[in-house]
């Protein structure tokens, strides 16, 4: 009697490499997300304190909070300013590096260095620069503008500007890195064809280079918006969201609810879930907007109009005098 030997079905090759990351994502990341959603339906101060079910009250409280909407406005302002500066600076520096200037390697290091420096290391320096007796006020004094000097971090009218300026300082280098790599992938034949057609540097940049790096621009937009939504380190290290919530972001607001005196973990979880939903929706919208679309087929009206033009052109050619028809190529 022949004994059958059971053989285990082989695991697909790709799954062997994906399984650890998949287990980590599902078992840790997604578990934390669902658990945060569960906690958002309770009023809980943490530890062994009782958990009081409140349903969707935490979400209603967040949407009715003026501080929440103030943080949303700060996020939008921060995103628009940082994204604009990052795109303009990244494109300008990348185009300059690809133009063959001298000491290009040294410039690359200088531009990219702020990206790799931790905010906690640079925060004391930025605080000194923007303080009442700091570098900014000293420069204004030398320029004869001492009347404009102030404590830039301590004023509610300028604290958000300081946080945004500090973020721009580090964001340009990251934009430069992505644009420099994207511009290096453009086929030289396309650039040569543009030059042969008489396009100058500015025309080549806007008509050839920028359309070819559109994917990088969209990716930077998504990354910048997600960064703005979860921003915490720079605002907290510089201003702690103040004064009077003038530089409050969702990240600092959530941390204040977790570690502050109120310590409402359920409310902080609700804020986290709202942040997650906003990030997913904006990412999907920007991805769809940035997707390359095939050329649209002409409508019936456009097709009839084009056909009418062809028939008119043929009729004109048929009634053209022979001499003009013979000299058509030379006159053109």
Explain the layout of strands and helices.
Blueprint: H1 13-39, E1 42-43, E2 52-53, H2 57-63, H3 66-98, H4 104-116, H5 119-130, H6 135-142, H7 159-184, H8 188-196, H9 201-212, H10 214-229, H11 233-238, H12 250-259, H13 265-290, H14 300-318, H15 322-326, H16 328-331
Antiparallel strand pairs: 1-2
Helix pairs in contact: 1-13, 2-13, 3-7, 3-10, 4-7, 8-9, 10-13, 12-13
Describe this structure in words.
The protein has 332 residues and is an all-alpha fold. The protein is 70% helix and 1% strand. It contains 16 helices and 2 strands. Strands 1-2 form a two-stranded antiparallel ribbon. Strand 1 (42-43) and strand 2 (52-53) form a beta hairpin. Helix 12 runs antiparallel to helix 13. The radius of gyration is 29 Å and the shape is globular.
